Amino acid sequence: MPLEFSERIRRIPVYPAAATYASDQPLVRLASNESPYPPLPAVKDAIAGALEQLNRYPDPTNSLLRKRLSERYGVPAARIAVGNGSCDILLAAGEALLEPGAEFVYAWPSFSVYPHLSAASGATGVTVPLDANDRHDLEAMAREITAATRLVVVCNPNNPTSTALPSSEIADFVSQVPGHVCVIVDEAYCEFNVLDDPESSVDLLAAHPNLALLRTFSKVYGLCGLRAGFALCGSERLVQALDQVRQPFFCNALAQAGAIEALAHQDEVEQRVARTIAERISVDERLRALGLQPADSQANFCWFELGGGDTEDATAREHDVMAGLTARGVLVRAGGALGRAGALRVTYGTSAENERFLTALAQVFAEIGAPVG
């Protein structure tokens, strides 16, 4: 007799992880939104130094990391949540806030983990289409908020479409949301956003106890492999609730050591951001020269549609382009797995990686036909 699983297992979608991790070939890996640059030497030294204490459990309160984050952002340590990546905090928010009968509002397409929150909790997920420029339609999202709404998430910059809204529009939206609704602004890519100072949203916390800003060490700090994220919260109670629903020791000792040291090197981080933005400008210009129209990226990746006709044609074209790139050792993400068929999401890599991607893409188009707007 087979195992019987809970109803929620049947509801939860499988996360669309990037493929070919098992490959031992020299690939250009632009399918996950990672930094192409390794951790800074001082960060690696801090991680190595923590190895001697691996026989001890990590600090369960993440006290030193929260202290350093407090010093960095001016938010009291008691209002900072730390997690095993920002996804850990996001899923904990779903666990703490959602239940059957509650509603969760988010845009689509957006981060692939969001549907997990409503599916796992039994809450109703309310999705709001992006606007014509692939940005969040905050007015439409505000109209969907009801007495049953417990959680609203705004991904800014948005994954997978790379677009962002100015902080003034985020501020206006948050001011409209009733106090019983938790608003999470997912800012995993905020350091790459040139529309505003990445710290501008922090000022909103003082006036909105229902607000949380979700950030990560995975992207700009280049620590994907360690999994460390954090949330700057408007209230201590949210932090307490997040911790209540998670297992102990959710952020390991090496992640804490690496994140603490990474915070001390903001100048180097800014230099890496500048290099990424330079690559962003260069890649997007060359995509346009190929006849594509990438979205206005404010992140470390681009998003563009491949052209074509209806959904079936777009899916087929996406498949052909993905197959052609993979055959040339270039890995990107298919839009169909991220919420929209007929598009690609491509992380900006090093100059050499980007050159190889663009050359391969031009070759594929030469084989299957140029994009049709």
What does this structure look like?
The protein contains 12 helices and 12 strands. By secondary structure, the protein is an alpha/beta fold. It has 2 domains: 7-38 and 266-368, Alpha-Beta Complex (Aspartate Aminotransferase, domain 1); 41-262, Type I PLP-dependent aspartate aminotransferase-like (Major domain) (Aspartate Aminotransferase, domain 2, 3-Layer(aba) Sandwich), CATH 3.40.640. The strands form 3 sheets. Strands 2-8-7-6-5-3-4 form a 7-stranded mixed β-sheet, sandwiched between helices. The mean pLDDT is 94.
Approximately how much helix is present in the residues?
25-40%
Average pLDDT confidence is 94
Q: Please tally the β strands and state the result.
A: 12
Secondary-structure class: alpha/beta
Per DSSP, the total helix count is: 12
List the topology elements:
Layout: H1 7-11, E1 28-29, H2 41-50, H3 63-73, E2 80-83, H4 86-97, E3 103-108, H5 114-121, E4 124-129, H6 138-143, E5 149-155, H7 167-176, E6 182-186, E7 211-216, E8 229-233, H8 236-244, H9 253-262, H10 266-289, E9 301-305, H11 311-327, E10 330-331, E11 333-334, E12 343-347, H12 351-368
Parallel strand pairs: 1-10, 3-4, 3-5, 5-6, 6-7
Antiparallel strand pairs: 2-8, 7-8, 9-12, 11-12
